[in-house]
């Protein structure tokens, strides 16, 4: 059974405030992940690709996605070098109506409660596009309220306004899928991000995207600023860090094998080159820290 990264809201929400906004910069590589809360993701800057459920399509500034719990997805910037990043504003909230503050629920009219319940209980992801900065204004207002550290009531009122706006907006009926001819390196990097435990090589990944060995190497370096092996090592070490913290009882050797490295001397060398310490020291330094990511089928 395939494993996913799961983002656990237990470590994201403040006590008694089941709503949170986050600004994030999307990386060229990251595993497809799920979350146990509802996410509204707004493209604030840049262009990229969104892999959601079994679909793939291009995204740009002004696009907004409503993602129910347990929908696997990941964003990938169009520019894989990091020079033109993809920035996303996330509005996260718990999927249980009773988790919202009592004051907010008392202020809700029956029609607002019905709308809120409709979004909370939905199982399909939705896509929208703003026309005149109406999404960004509400999301920035939510972020400003969050910084004031007030109760969740003000945040909840703004969330209701955002959901009300979405309920009146037409959903996007057509999303543009990227072709492998247009984004072959993106397809390769995403494949590497989700299959890094396999014995990947330039040969088998270039075949997957239907590009000759030499041309693939040139394209990969041009579009990512790294060689294929440098990117693969970076992906593997990044996930090794997550495993070290999430699988605290697993041996270092077991974790090395789970990220596709079977030579322990090579694994220790790679890890030290990336993080300046051994895996054991990294685990010890971070053992008391709570993190939102875990691995689950």
Automatic annotation (TrEMBL):
Write the record's keywords in alphabetical order, separated by commas: DNA-binding, Transcription, Transcription regulation
* Entry superkingdom: Bacteria
The GO terms this record gives for MF are:
DNA-binding transcription factor activity; sequence-specific DNA binding
InterPro entries xrefs? AraC-bd (IPR003313), Homeodomain-like_sf (IPR009057), HTH_AraC (IPR018060), RmlC-like_jellyroll (IPR014710), RmlC_Cupin_sf (IPR011051)
Instruction: Report the residue ranges that make up the HTH araC/xylS-type domain in this protein.
Output: 186-285
Q: Which PANTHER family does its entry note?
A: ARAC-FAMILY TRANSCRIPTIONAL REGULATOR, HTH-TYPE TRANSCRIPTIONAL REGULATOR EXSA
Q: What is this protein called?
A: AraC-like protein
């Amino acid at each position: 059974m395939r494993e996913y990264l799961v983002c656990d809201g237990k470590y994201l929400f403040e006590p008694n405030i089941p709503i949170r906004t986050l600004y994030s910069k999307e990386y060229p590589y990251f595993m497809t992940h799920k979350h146990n809360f509802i996410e509204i993701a707004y493209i604030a800057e840049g262009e990229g690709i969104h892999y959601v459920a079994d679909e793939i399509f291009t995204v740009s500034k002004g696009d907004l996605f409503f993602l129910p719990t347990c929908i696997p997805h990941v964003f990938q910037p169009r520019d894989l070098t990091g020079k033109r990043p993809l920035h996303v504003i996330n509005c996260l909230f718990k999927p249980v109506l009773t988790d919202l503050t009592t004051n907010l629920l008392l202020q809700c009219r029956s029609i607002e409660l019905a709308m809120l319940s409709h979004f909370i209980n939905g199982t399909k992801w939705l896509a929208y596009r703003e026309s005149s900065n109406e999404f960004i204004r509400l999301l920035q207002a939510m972020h400003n309220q969050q910084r004031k550290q007030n109760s969740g009531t003000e945040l909840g009122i703004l969330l209701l306004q955002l959901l009300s706006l979405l309920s009146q907006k037409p959903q996007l009926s057509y999303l543009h899928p990227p072709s492998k001819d247009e984004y072959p390196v993106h397809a390769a990097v995403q494949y590497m991000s989700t299959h890094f435990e396999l014995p990947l090589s330039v040969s088998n990944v270039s075949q997957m995207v239907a590009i000759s060995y030499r041309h693939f190497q040139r394209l990969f370096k041009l579009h990512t600023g790294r060689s294929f092996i440098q990117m693969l090592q970076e992906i593997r070490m990044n996930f090794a860090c997550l495993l070290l913290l999430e699988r605290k009882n697993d041996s270092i050797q077991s974790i090395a094998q789970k990220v596709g490295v079977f030579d322990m001397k090579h694994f220790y060398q790679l890890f030290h080159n990336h993080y300046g310490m051994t895996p054991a020291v990294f685990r010890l330094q971070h053992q008391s820290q709570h993190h939102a990511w875990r691995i689950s089928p």
